[in-house]
Predict the 3D structure of the following.
Amino acid sequence: MEQNEESFLRALAERPFDRTLRLVFSDWLLESRDNHAVARGEAISLFEKGTLSALERRKLTKLQETHGRAWLGPLGARVEREQCRFEGGLLKTVCFPSNMPAADYAALVGEPRLALVDTLRILPGRVAAEVGQFLSHPVLGRVIELEGDLDTITLTKNTKYTLKGVVSVAAGKTVTIEPGTLIVGDKASLGTLVVQRGGKLIAEGTAAEPIVFTSALPEGEREAGDWGGVVLLGKAPINEAGGEAEVEGFTNPQLYGGDDPADNSGSLKYVRIEFGGIEIAPDNEINGLTLAGVGSGTKVDFVQVSNSLDDCFEFFGGTVNASHLVCYRNGDDGFDFDSGYVGSLQFLFLQQDPSGSDDSNGLECDNDSDEPTVTPVTNPKISNITLCGQNGDQPKQQYGFLFRRGFHATVTNALVVGFEAGVDIRDAETEVTLTNSLFLDMSVQPIAYVEDKPKTDDGNPDEDDDGDFDEIAWFEEGAGNDVTGPDMAGCFASTPAPGPAAMIPGGAPVGSGADASATFIGAFEDASDTWLDGWTSFASN
């Protein structure tokens, strides 16, 4: 900063402003002592700019545009230049240091001139619990940017939040999100929300006011991979060596797993997660919703993942139960299970992207690729699912069910429509029971490929990859299984109508906490079953 600029600012600072909160240029932070700025002249009032002359205001605005960042409140150690940047001139972006005292937050409550501020950025380190009252300010701004570790806090629906980088809910902290709240992920910084082991996310929307995690770009410009996703890391058992592992999709280790089957990571209800799955490295994407080592104390119900670059839902071990899950236009698989997942799932719906070119499957299910018999064996109980494929032959193989690598499961009341083939079972250690299920309108094979060729490295669908196991006989021997059924054209509509015209009788659901009354095939009893209504979105961009 030039000497005449600093003199101008120092002169302003000597005026008798009556506000305790100050706007401070970090260029003045030439030294620090006891974690507070020493340089003189830190007292340019945020709210008293009316006392400045027009010339002084122009000078101040010019400095803000030139030097690009400012701070509100008492200052800690110096922070890197790029962490706080003005955009658009005076009072557009204001940054809060993580050590800002509660009294300073309290001083802001009731201050209507906060409406001047477009964006608030809460800096890495921690977000003080006292900020919760401030964030609920009725006229407060437009966007609050969240970075780093969050303290216990409530996010309110009157404000839009931006995730900058990996935003974490640390052990012992709880982030609560009000119904109707909008959270967007920043693409440049790979915005992602991670709930660490011992942390909790309470995100409970309603059918009328769902909580939405989505792209920061405007409607019409959004696409898969615009940001990361939502990741819950728990302390429930997994089958990885040592009982813990690093979750995929991150460059910095994010650990999950433990010895508490009833671990509680919070609750998700009426939540949408859209346009996520950003690629952080070649062939390394974050899923829409990742549940890694999540325990049965966690509640997951009415959650939609749409337009994800990777899987919609992936379960890495754990014991969590979930229901009413919706996957729309997945980039990879719809629902993915591995690492010893043993929970129960009911009412799952998938509509694949008809333009997708990857080998995307409805369910892709593994135990372990290196040790297929390692325990706990991945062994979920799955009932009442409707999987709508791409409705045509694709360049790569895509199956309703891909079971492999020692996976075990019990699946019932499944309605699988419009894939290349209904199922592929690989590896001798894999054991699945399938009953009361329909495979309809497959584009190549009505049930499975006849695997009568020797196995090679080419991975062709007619190669024997399961030790002479006969998938067709296995399907036909399952009680209530069939390849004939009603017209399901609504599966592939731009706004899906996946309920059959009339109920398709099925069997008793399986698993812990299952709705025993759902003795029908598919996720929807009939065309009048409208649990998708109100809270879901099927926008493609």
Remarks:
- The chain is about 10% helix and 30% strand.
